Amino acid sequence: MKRPVIAVLGVLLAAGCSGSSSSTTSPSPNGPGNSTIRFTAALSPSNETPPITNAESVGSGTATIDFNITRDANSVITAASVNFSVNMSGFPSTTVINIAHIHTGAAGVAGGVLVSTTLAAGEVVLSGGTGTFTRVGITMTSTVAQSIIDNPAGFYFNVHSTLNPGGVIRGQLVRAN
């Protein structure tokens, strides 16, 4: 009589464990709920349009851009915000960074600003030619978020300096997850 009771308890225990694990899974980026989608960009002066050839042409950088997305039951984005983390190095000492943002445009094509980092002119000075900045919780429209998710290569991130107000380093977005 003990064996059937132990077998039933084992089945109940297994069913209870499998039921609880499904409630802790992360929401799918294509389903209802919240998710984070990461993009990266390798930033280079040679990627600017036209390429940078002055004293700042030796710099480089990386950008990590996280979209925080909320979707409804039909997988439609209902809210979106973005976090930026940007690292820059190899620039002339005391290079001044003025603005940075996501633009529309394929490689080699200049395009309009879609999402600003809200960086203020002169807020970042690259001491010794190196520096970083982060921005968190910048709101963007659901339409812009969906467009970038659908075709990240059609968008780029760039950073503008005092010497290069049109942009000093640029990189196309690449989806990382």
Task: Please give a structural write-up.
- The protein is 16% helix and 43% strand.
- The protein has helices at 2-21, 142-150, and strands spanning 33-43, 60-71, 77-89, 95-104, 113-116, 124-126, 131-140, 155-161, 169-172, 174-175.
- The chain has 2 helices and 10 strands; from the N terminus they run H-E-E-E-E-E-E-E-H-E-E-E.
- It has a single domain, classed as Immunoglobulin-like (Sandwich).
- The protein has 177 residues and is α+β, with helices and mostly antiparallel strands.
- The termini are far apart.
- A 5-stranded antiparallel β-sheet has the order 7-3-2-1-10, with helices on one face.
Short description:
This protein has two helices and ten strands; from the N terminus they run αβββββββαβββ. The protein has 177 residues and is α+β, with helices and mostly antiparallel strands.
